[in-house]
Amino acid sequence: MSSMDMGGMDMGNMPMPASASSTPAAAGASPAAKDGDMAGMKHGQMPDPATAAKALSTGTMDMGSMDMGGMQQGAMPGMDHADHAKGARPSASSSMSGMSGNASGDSMSGMAMGAMQGGNAPPDARSPDYSDGVGYGDRSGMDMVPPKVGRLLLDNLEAVHGRNANGQAWELQAWYGGDTDKLWLRSEGERSAGRLEDGSAEVLWNHLMATYWSTQLGVRRDIGVDPGRTWAAFGVEGLAPYFFDVEATAYVGQSGRTAARFRATYDVLFTQRLILTPEFELNAYGKADPARRLGAGVSDASLGLRLRYEIRREFAPYVGVNWVRRFGATAGYAQRDHQPVFDPQFVAGVRIWF
Asked: From start to end residue, where is composition biased (Low complexity) (predicted)?
């Protein structure tokens, strides 16, 4: 058998004796069954293990005379079983007719491969979409529609102690909508001596244009003791690199008036609750407005530092300092009104959102 390639033979279909005593050879084989000669075996019989081992070790096993009729039909594709039906002993050439070459050849190229490849998939094969035949069913109502959300943030609600006067100030933002579009409200102002000195309110439509960035379009209304002004507003708002919150807005008003506002903040976390927030704001106008004590060009700038402690995320008291500087004609109006051109302020307040 060392010279014969038996690859492809299903050895699981060859019945093996449970013990030597139970084999036909042990019970009394034909006298013709000698060591190394298996021609005398009866149809379907196999030698006892000792005889088979000796025949294999000496190389005298005669595969041509070995009766293969005991194998299950179909175990060796291409085998001619006609001789078995007639009771004759098949030769090696007739039994192995499906194979190319002689009994001593190593090539299996002539074997028909149809039984090994192609055809239908086995019953337990996995389905291509891994559904295993389970339908998806009705998925109505499962669309991921982003919900509408709202928020009100009182960023600064504080008492102010300046060079010439004490007062109160506020900055707030509120919005409502989805991920793409929101209705946005923004307001800030100052109150002193029991009256509203200066303030503004903006209503904007916020539209997402890129990750972390959105455009804003709406109107602004100036309020206070001076004459009110109405502006069309458009700008951008978002998170710049290194986590700077940025707002840049341009305004167009009546009588050819124009204005611009830039604001940036940044949170420095000393701990998860103790946070320092620097804030910078710059305002400019295209033309002078003496009624509101504003000159053309850059009118004022402010820089603030506020240190807050978040007792809860929604509630954080803070203390800080704010420096306000007026420029150009706006500084001249302040001097004539006996107001400081440079005004350092101490502030204390609370930040609330819900």
From this structure: 1-33, 91-121
